[in-house]
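Box S2. Input/output pair 1.
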Amino acid sequence: MPATKDENTQVILVNDRDEEIGRAEKLAAHEKGLLHRAFSIFILRREAGQPTEVLLQQRAASKYHSPGLWTNTCCSHPAPGENLLQAAMRRLKEELNLIGVELSDIGQFHYIAHFENGLIENEYDHVLVGWHQDQAFTPNPEEIQACRWITLSDLEEELGQKPEQFTPWLKQALGIVQSIDH
């Protein structure tokens, strides 16, 4: 499988307490199922009197795993030496050309997912949220084939009815987001 620029980057290997224990090439970490640090960003909006909505993205068909599946606004991995919020802001700009969103780390979880192409996600995933303040965004077609806003309750319902249309980490990450939504 040819590697893209993003697949040649390094990820931070961690133990089960999210303590850094090394680094590995991103693709190698996914081939070997090595535990590494990741993040999932949820950009939320709430208009007066309306329920909270989240911006979802549909992963580009060219992605090396989970192509065409719906997921949270943005997700990736911090690079060695890069803090979580710096990495998250970098990826929001690269994937959506979205800048100026204040993000908060609201929780973490660990998950393992095996994919048909033999790759394995073994991630200690930080869930980050930010509120949309009418910032313009433009999806990068190399990363995203579509975007949509959906209420948290409608997303939970769709996840229950059609889980195969969503990434394997979305349900766990969404549970953390729902725990802070009032």
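Box S3. Input/output pair 2.
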Amino acid sequence: MKGIIFNEFLEFAEQVESASFADSLIQNTSPASGGAYTAIGTYDYCELVDMVVEWSKQKARPVPELLHDFGEHVFGRFVAGYPEFFDGIDDAFAFLDTLENRIHAEVRKLYPEANPPRFDTVRHGEDIMRLHYTSLRCLGDFASGLLQGCIKHFGGGIRVAVSDQTGKRGDVLFELTRT
């Protein structure tokens, strides 16, 4: 997993809790990287999972809730940091259709060793989309937060039904319906 995600996570922990709390996540989990992440470096995603679990223990917040909220945060940062991916797009469905063939294709060009999750979309008319998330990292709750951040960014008006295909959050089907 790219270091930018770790950096965003620690910034999120600082915003929600405090800088000393974010430091305590690193100290209490003793990540192999030492907790020093460069944006373009690649790190074991288990370090992130360990910090999320530690946060959950310290603050009695469920892991799925933390991952979801973090996903929403990251989407907002994505909008701010990469506005070119939003040029000419005024609709959540249209944006989601670009994830795999535009955004993740660009990630793979820049970082050939990257292994981003897959987001496959299928439209069923104008008002229904199925988005299939697959990842070995099993961060479906994070993907759900990203999706909610996207929907909010484009003005809402979309209901989401979630179906975990494996029970492990690594194969999740989201059905989006315009309301």
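Caption for Box S3: The mean pLDDT is 93. The domain at 91-178 is CATH 3.90.1520.10 (H-NOX domain).
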